[in-house]
Here is the input.
Amino acid sequence: MARGDDKNHKSNRSGQRRGHPGAGKPQYKTITSVKGGQLPKWVRDEIIRSTPKDRRDPAIAHLSKAMEAFAEERYPAALNDLRQAKKLSPRSATIRELLGLSAYRSGKWEEALRELRTFRRLTGDLIHYPVEMDCLRALDRPEDVIKAWERLEDYEISATINHEARVVYASFLLDQGLARDAWPVIKPGRLVASPTQGELRRWFVAARVAMEAGDKEAARRLVAALDEQEPDFEGVDELRKALA
Here is the structure.
């Protein structure tokens, strides 16, 4: 993550309010599963539904260029085309999502937060809620980070969103010098044999928290587990040196 420890949120599962009557409704497909190049049919259909007829073709052209730039990690270039696409199609959830993520990866925290909140309002999908939290963290809005974390209790969320939110919130607590408070948030359960990327990120932040809290044995176990899965996990070298 630009700040919080990863940017790639790839699950398409929405977060539903507990007991929400709309639970189980068709879920929005997120743009994060799309590679560059030709727009998938569902993206074109979404632009057609949300865009006046005379603006559809230029909106699709700008979005196509932006998706290619995004796939190549040229986020400022993607931003330029996405801002033009937004002017043409402000009700497109696809455009607002990719604009928010491109702004996030470019360090444009205010813009990222605004666009991802709009995406969430348009779709009801919580997939990028942890990124919203990380934007608040980057903007030094601690009370809002805490409120966002507490608000998650109102929703039934996927394991992916849960891991990412814990990574961001525990990292925020570390920023505040509250490692002992961060441990119950980030402490992983069983160290499974085939972890997801979200679980690996959680283990890494948990190792950092354990180190800061003075529990070197827990940190060693987590670093060893990371080494078994992904020996080159970014940031682990620094932890190894501290443990040595």
Q: What stands out?
A: Residues 137 and 145 are 6 Å apart (CA to CA). Residues 4-27 have pLDDT under 50 and may be disordered. Residues 159-175 form the longest helix (17 residues). DSSP finds twelve helices and two strands in the chain.
